[in-house]
Task: structure prediction
Amino acid sequence: MPRKQLQTLSEPMYYILLVLKEEQNGVDIMKRVLEVSKGRVKVGAGTLYTLLGKFEKEGLINSTKREGRKCWYIITNKGREILQTEYNRLNTMIDDGEILK
Amino acid sequence: MKKYEINPFSRWKTYELEAYLAKKTAQGWKLTDIFGKLLIFNRVEPSACEYAVRLFTPKTIRQIEEYQELCEGSGWKPITWTDNLQIMEKMNPSAIALDTDEELLLTEGKKILFDCVWRGLLATLIAFIFYLVITIYAGDILFETLSLLLVLFGVIYLVSKIADIIQCFVWLNRVKKEMRMKSEFSIINRVWNICYVWYRRIIITLQGILYLAIFVEAVFMDIKGGLYFVKNERSFFIMMIILIIIMLMITIKGNGRVYHARKVEFPLWVRGIYLLIYYCLILFMSGVANSPAENIYTPDMWGYSTTTKDYSSAKYEGGLIGNRGEYDYAGYGLMEGDSISEQHTSAYELKIYNSRINGLLDSIKRKETKNCTLTYLYELRGVKVFQLDGYLSGYEKLGIKMGYEKYYYLEYEDGFCIFIYQKYVGDITNEQVIAGLVDKLNKKVN
Result:
């Protein structure tokens, strides 16, 4: 079943918002996601570009400055809320998964 | 050394285009640019190269630049851009794939599909409906005067649009089911691709030729018709303006504001003017091609002036059959089982009518009319009976029936004549019916 837009976050969405706690430009976001996820999550340029546009439109991130072709972004309060909600949801899922032990 | 090829792939054939470009590079031809429907290659040393073709519909130069920065940062070098696609070459073997979220890709694909259907097909359908309406408006309810070129163009255009949408669904399905690799090795798919490549080449060439032919034909027709369309079709122009506004609203915010390949961004008003000219041209072409000016150049047939012949000053005076509210029926109120009533006509009017119609008959007899034939049937009580097939209705306002009809033309010995709608008198071979009518007419006129 398709995920309702931004109600739950996909892995790339989650990690992009996560790394945007600090101001980053697009290329740095890709590198930082790879770093934070220890090489597990790769975000392609196409995916990142689409998601940044979507996040900015929804007010989850703000563009802060622009130098040449580079654009810097940072998470907004709304973005933080969404990220926190997702974090809590994932934690709840992990807790619920305890019955497997 | 340069080589130009028609792009054989629609925007949805991204995987096929990627494979095609890689194949061409292996043969020593590297893509350098895309201009309209043309792929431009440069001669290079044959090499193995990986390409990425991605659907991309930015609205501003800023978006393009930002995306280029991201691509270059992840190991892809942008080669060229079209209104819908971006083409990149892999520079780094460890480059991250451009699309790492297939669900997102699918969502974006659906969005572009919707855009394609909404803006492309809907605009086409509106233009098509408009085309049919003006054809009826021009008096051809049976669409017998449709320009063959325009119909052919329309059919090809519609088929290519539908094919485009089918391709889009196929593309979505392939993204969804991750069928990319599988399909590349399928023999059926390879055969299909070859057929598709040639279908695209032929269709694009045909469209170009037809477009030009229609334009030339339309302009020629209107000039021949004394610029009738431009001068006289006020109500048509109002319709056209309304349609242009609708089409502008549909398309102005669509793709195409940025000419990617040249990195030119047009302000909205420039895009608006461009579309305005574009639609005016298309609608003008279809309008002219269907205006009565195309069908006939003897004015009396419709009561307007489209010729330099004797009747160029003829106006729409209601002298013809069934063309005005006050003369609703053939022969001034002549209907089956009806007599010619004072309410509808008088002997005097019939005589005026006669004089006006003589000009028309002359032109028919001289075979100057394109869509009329006059056939002598027989003589009955001193009246010659002809059958007339053709467009005798005036170029009337919407809501009044008109079109291709059969008429009977009765010519008296003294030159008096009259037309009768076949539908009101039945079959002309029914001599009793026609004899009765002739009697009534004779009484009335005498």
Notes: Chain A touches chain B through 24 residues (CB under 8 Å). The longest strand of chain A covers residues 61-67. Helices of chain A lie at 11-19, 26-36, 45-58, 77-96.
